[in-house]
Write a structure and sequence with these properties.
CATH superfamily of the largest domain: Resolvase, N-terminal catalytic domain
CATH class of the largest domain: Alpha Beta
CATH architecture of the largest domain: 3-Layer(aba) Sandwich
Radius of gyration: 25 Å
Number of helices: 8
Largest sheet: 5 strands, mixed
Number of strands: 7
Order of helices and strands: EHEHEHHEEHEEHHH
Shape: elongated
Helix content: 55-70%
Length: about 220
């Protein structure tokens, strides 16, 4: 199994530099004990309350790209603190990445409170996903009721499959003419596979309106 070692201290004092070295040495010993290959060692000096630490973000990217399968840290406080710890543990859980620590002499052992918060976060995220999908279906249903025909926005590929084509401004204008809100237009287009936000739809529409106005003034 391939492992990533993550070491962190909060300040740049000399004794903290020594702590980074000690953390790495102890974690390398753990890797040897389990027979894991260390493919990357990440060290950084930053507050554990910060989520967007460059080193930790690099660590998450490496796991997303399947470069390693396990994370080694001295203890959960080296991973992060406070809300940042819960957020990181949640991300690692979603990536199915186990965390092993020197303190636990094995897999990270969480408190009942941390376990409960992680369960709540997972439940909330699942309901947010369901709510998002429900909004997309609502926007699509409303658009079709008002005369929108999604099949006109899809063309057949050479292999018989369906290829998404670029969403032209005409589609946004047409949906707007059917009295759909920018939120519903964005949800409808996302339902068709186009990654477009409400803000983008609004901006594109306003740009179109301004362009039409200029053209009319120049006639």
């Amino acid at each position: 199994m391939k492992a990533i070692i993550y070491c962190r201290v909060s300040t740049k004092k000399e004794e903290q530099e020594t702590s980074l070295t000690r953390q790495e040495d102890e974690l390398r010993q753990m890797a040897v004990l389990y027979g894991w290959e260390v493919v990357q060692v990440i060290k950084e000096q930053a507050s554990g309350f910060e989520f967007d630490r460059p080193g930790m973000l690099d660590c998450l990217v490496a796991f997303q790209e399947k470069q390693a399968e396990v994370l080694l840290v001295q203890d959960d406080t080296r991973l992060a603190r406070g809300h940042a710890k819960i957020a990181l543990l949640h991300q690692l859980k979603k990536l199915a990445i186990p965390v092993y620590t020197v303190r636990d002499q094995g897999k990270l052992s969480l408190s009942e409170a941390d376990e409960m918060v992680l369960d709540i976060v997972s439940i909330v995220e699942e309901y947010q996903r369901k709510l998002h999908n429900a909004k997309i279906k609502r926007g699509m249903k409303k658009a079709i009721t008002n005369g929108y025909r999604p099949e006109r926005n899809i063309k057949r590929g050479a292999n018989g499959g369906r290829d998404k084509k670029e969403v032209p401004i005409e589609e946004i204008v047409r949906l707007r003419s059917l009295k759909l809100t920018f939120h519903d237009i964005a949800a409808t287009l996302r339902g068709l596979g186009y990654q477009v936000s409400k803000a983008t739809v609004h901006r594109r529409y306003q740009e179109h309106v301004e362009l039409v106005k200029i053209e009319q003034e120049n006639e």
